[in-house]
Amino acid sequence: MKGTAFLLIVLIALTCLTCRNKSNSDSQFVFPEEDTIPLDEAEKLSTEAIEEIAKNISSPVEIANLLQTLAVPFSPEYLASSVDPNRQTTSFDKAFTLGILGADLGYLNMYEKTGSSIDILSSIRKLAEGIKVGQFFDFETIKRLSLSKSNLDSLLFMSIDSYTQIDKYLRDNDRGQLSALMIIGVWIEGQYLATQVMTEYPDPVLRDRIGEQKIILNDLILLANPYCNRDPEFGELCRDLQEIKQKYRDVKITYTLGEPVSREVDGALIVEQTETSVVEMTDEQLKEIIEITESVRNKLIANN
Amino acid sequence: MKKYLITLLLLTAGIFAFGQSTDPLVTQCVMNAGPNTKYLKDFRVQLGKAAAPGEFRYKTQMSLWKNTRYKFSLCTAEGSQGELILTIKNDANQVVLSSYDSNTGKTYKSVELVCNRSGIYQLNYDFKDGLQGSGVGVVSMVK
Fold it and tell me: Per the structure, how many domains does chain A have?
């Protein structure tokens, strides 16, 4: 009887502790316990799940927008200009490079350097045709919009929409590995852009954005997982992503809670979050992330 | 007069530029998002009448980033019985915003979010009262 009562007290105490933790104002983002879903499991990821993951990957346009907000000047040095589409022989190279150049195109468009995007557009067309998705990239319209510089909104829409359609078509036609490569390429180039700018124009907002990539890194790995054993190229890419993840392991993202505040301005609703995310990343961790990003991106570009 | 001509020319250029798109409702919704916005994504929502109104039926996810102001535009196709509405929940399943005020019954055609917490958010779309409808949700950044 005494034993049961003691057990009950312990249980109640434990429950209270759990409750207290839940009501704490801070929570923290951590990678899931399991580093990766076992390959067999990953292959079972539904089309819908993969589609959701693909949507979570941030757009390079957002990174470019942030750089503009921070008054970072445009630099062609960041672009993967050395990539020659005629040297891409495998579907792996073509799809991955399509992603890299897609991010570069977003950067050029946001900075309205649209006149200089024609070379990249031509490369994108060649690569898209190389994996038989050229029909979704309306080269002539995008080129016309780029040269006229008159309608940036249409240009952004057309460019992003072309990539969305290519991505969907690939997934719908059992070529999900190419869709994954394209998305990973976009992310790596966006990350490269952010980290390179950080070395030249250090800024706390940009620093946070780099640290916050931890949030979607696991999704990116989930996207690649089903294909890691497909061929040596994919295997190496998966190892590279794991290496990047390793550098993020001790980056901490904590959240402070708060209720959103709404107001109506001229009939439009504006909601401001009072809850915030806070990134804790040491200079050493940042340095390692910058280095690994540069190394992985340059290696993949050089392979091409 | 000159001002009107320029406006007309710009509008025509916009329509021409978007003319290639397969879905006019999407292009119209993107154009209506406003001059100070930059397009990010669109979600095409087509739903029949719900058996019982309640949980939003079209669910999708998107990463939203701190220090960014987003605009969520909602466009309903002609002939729809219900109006497209949206709620956004954070990863703790808490409602961050809703384009529909259930207390007043008021709906908004667009909602802006000043995002201060980076994360993956759930975007839930449906038509008001679970009615049948066709619409587009466009997500843009406000510059």
Answer: 1
